[in-house]
């Protein structure tokens, strides 16, 4: 797809490292003009300087206006990639209201606010592309991380709603749902991540490759770990059996803590 996004205006949130930085690099390689967003201004500038992009630091919930200005008024692709994860939901219970509030704001409402700001122009011109970095946790779940698992389900639900509501009006939506990816976020998941995610973890660049292939094939659901499709089918086909299997993993995790 070399040059497929030549001249396109692309925004990537949470792009100071990890998946976001890989997406920014890949879109830049395709010829896009890329806005690199991150809360950490120094990290955003580092990636932007590397790829010839434009750094726009700040909260991912409120950067559409600044990003649009940086791209001379037009955003063609918006990658809602910024995310947060917290430990929680173990045998002691899932209630940490600070973690729940932050997860809801970043993992769900930042997507909603961005779409609200982008849709008027996209609908007027009949084109636009919204990329939501969800996680396999949004299709399945994740032990030891209740706020993350639940809000990633919310992110997927919102992406589905966007797609079904606006696809006939030219808005393309993609939900990217990897399992473990070798990033700082994975390193912070502790023993639960070591058990469930590390064995099959991939590099961020593999996620960017999967997204570009999914865009080329015009697919909504993008699975950098193809085996997730079978897990998702098993979950839908026999929820009790699937939950029993996940509970065994939970017990295995508890035994190692």
Short description:
By secondary structure, the protein is α/β, with parallel strands linked by helices. The protein contains 10 helices and 7 strands.
Give descriptors for this structure:
257 residues; alpha/beta; seven-stranded parallel beta sheet; 10 helices; globular
Please outline the major beta sheet. 7 strands, parallel
Report low-confidence residues grouped into runs of 5 or more: none
The coarse silhouette is globular
Q: Provide the β-strand percentage band.
A: 5-15%
Q: Give the N-to-C terminal Cα separation.
A: 46 Å
- Oligomeric status: single chain
- The total of beta strands comes to 7
Write structural notes for this entry:
Helix 4 (97-125) links the parallel strand 4 and strand 5. Strands 3-2-1-4-5-6-7 form a seven-stranded parallel β-sheet, with helices on both faces. Helices cover 51% and strands 12% of the residues. The chain starts with 8 loop residues before the first strand and ends with a helix. The protein has helices at residues 18-29, 41-51, 64-70, 97-125, 146-166, 184-187, 190-196, 204-216, 228-237, 239-256, and strands at residues 9-12, 33-38, 54-57, 77-80, 128-133, 171-176, 221-222. It has ten helices and seven strands. With 257 residues, it is of the alpha/beta class. Belongs to the short-chain dehydrogenases/reductases (SDR) family.
């Amino acid at each position: 797809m070399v040059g497929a996004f030549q001249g396109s205006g692309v925004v990537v949130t949470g792009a100071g490292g990890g998946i976001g930085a890989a997406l920014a690099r890949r879109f830049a390689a395709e010829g896009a003009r890329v806005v690199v967003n991150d809360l950490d201004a120094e990290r955003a500038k580092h990636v932007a300087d590397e790829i010839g992009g434009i750094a726009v630091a700040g909260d991912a919930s409120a950067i559409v206006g600044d990003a649009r200005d940086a791209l001379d008024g037009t955003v063609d692709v918006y990658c809602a990639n910024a995310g947060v994860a917290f430990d929680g939901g173990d045998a002691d219970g899932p209630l940490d209201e600070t973690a729940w509030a932050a997860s809801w704001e970043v993992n769900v409402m930042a997507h909603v606010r961005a779409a609200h700001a982008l849709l008027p122009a996209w609908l007027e011109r009949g084109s636009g592309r919204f990329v939501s970095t969800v996680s396999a946790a949004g299709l399945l779940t994740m032990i030891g991380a209740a706020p993350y698992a639940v809000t990633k389900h919310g992110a997927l639900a919102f992406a589905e709603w966007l797609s079904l509501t606006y696809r006939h009006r030219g808005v393309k939506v993609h939900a990217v749902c990897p399992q473990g990816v070798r990033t700082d976020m994975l390193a912070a998941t502790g023993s639960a991540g070591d058990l469930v995610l590390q064995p099959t973890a991939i590099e961020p660049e593999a996620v960017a490759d999967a997204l570009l292939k999914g865009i080329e094939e015009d697919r909504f659901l993008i699975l950098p770990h193809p085996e997730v499709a079978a897990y998702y089918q098993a979950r839908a086909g026999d929820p009790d059996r699937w939950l029993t299997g996940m509970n065994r993993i939970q017990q295995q995790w508890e035994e190692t803590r």
